[in-house]
Amino acid sequence: MSRHTAPHTVLVVEDTDTMRQLICTLLSQAGYQVLEAVDGASALYIVHEHDPDLILLDIHLPDMTGLDLVPFIHGYPFVILTLDTDPKLFDQAKKLGALNYFIKPPTVPEFLNNVALAIQQGKTRSDLQKAMQCNRNIAKTVGLLMGTLGLTEATADQCLRDYATRHRRSLHDIAEDILSLAAVCSGDTPRMAQQLSSYLKMGNAFNP
């Protein structure tokens, strides 16, 4: 079997030694960088230390259930590992954000194909979330300029775009700068207006 060109990292959270070793061996032979955890506590430590691309999460762990662990790994793509074939369990996991549901023991090559698909789905979801957050920040910034400097929505939006073009920066970066500036000036509207005008080099064009 050909090895993956990208060194994706997969964390296997499974308390049964033989099952964990089987899954880790399959992944390692397929070219993945593999991390192992036997319980929820060690999984949390590894997640925050190594930032895996995918987590294979057993439902039944010694210190907590896999579903109990999910809120603490928010933002990380994960797939459920279980012997349980109850569809209600997968529905519950899916509502919590699971990408898929793998029945143990895994079968090759279906298992590896599903892992590759889950990693791609996780990346797509992450990119979408980042794009949505970026758009939210830009929308907040436009609203801030409207409220603080008395601009119309179209003028505020164009102001940001003109600034981005002049300084060769992304709208997202500029929005983050302005939102950080607003946080510093929170509650002091005249100061905020002055700082925003200075940042955007408007002078007194909009009578802040």
- Proportion of residues in β-strands: 5-15%
Evaluate the radius of gyration.
24 Å
Task: Tally the structural domains.
Answer: 2
Q: Specify the CATH architecture of the largest domain.
A: 3-Layer(aba) Sandwich
What is the CATH class name of the largest domain?
Alpha Beta
**Strand segment count:** 5
Distance between the termini: 65 Å
CATH superfamily membership of the largest domain: Response regulator
* Overall average pLDDT: 85
CATH fold type of the largest domain: Rossmann fold
Percent range for helical residues? Answer: 55-70%
Label the structural class. Answer: alpha/beta
Strand order within the widest sheet?
2-1-3-4-5
Count of DSSP H/I helices:
8
Order of helices and strands: EHEHEHEHEHHHH
Approximate shape: elongated
How is this structure best described in words?
The chain has two domains: 9-106, Response regulator (Rossmann fold); 133-200, Arc Repressor Mutant, subunit A, CATH 1.10.10. Strands 2-1-3-4-5 form a five-stranded parallel beta sheet, with helices on both faces. The chain has 208 residues and is α/β, with parallel strands linked by helices. The protein has helices at 17-29, 40-50, 66-69, 87-95, 110-149, 153-167, 171-184, 189-200, and strands at residues 9-13, 33-37, 54-58, 78-82, 101-103. Residues 203-208 have low confidence and may be disordered. α5 (110-149) crosses α6, α5 (110-149) packs across α7 (171-184) and α7 (171-184) runs antiparallel to α8 (189-200).
